[in-house]
Design goal:
Elements lengths: L3 H13 L27 H20 L7 H14 L2 H10 L4 H13 L7
Helix pairs in contact: 1-2, 2-3, 3-5
Length: about 120
């Protein structure tokens, strides 16, 4: 499970050209990834919007569901995930463009809570 998760996240990153939104396994596959410089100064609301959008794209692909039908559950996921991240985890996200290990655990919990499918 944790080996395929980074691949799904990488696909979302390529599709969005911005940031990873879903929890993944190891962060090693992202070593070559260059995060959007706007992340460094983006307000938290903008971070939430990016996470929500990436969630809808990835969940739509995984479930063959229209993106519009995922706005509410992905909004739940983005709000809950970012609300639960501490300042160090948010800073790591701003720096790298993806969730670190401790943030990833919180994101997985948010996926479950918001009744979204975990990437396998």
């Amino acid at each position: 499970m944790t080996r395929r998760l980074p691949s799904l996240i990488a696909a979302g990153l390529l599709a969005l050209g911005a940031t990873a939104a879903l929890a993944g396994g190891s962060s090693a596959p992202f070593e070559q990834y260059q995060p959007d410089p706007a992340l460094r100064t983006a307000p938290k609301a903008n971070l939430e919007s990016r996470v929500r959008h990436a969630c809808t794209v990835i969940q739509a692909r995984m479930t063959s569901t229209p993106e519009a039908s995922l706005e509410r559950p992905c909004g739940c996921y983005a709000r809950q995930t970012l609300r639960n991240l501490d300042e160090a985890e948010i800073e790591a996200y701003r720096t790298t463009g993806y969730f670190n290990d401790s943030a990833r655990a919180k994101a997985l919990s948010a996926l479950d809570s918001c009744k979204l499918q975990r990437p396998v």
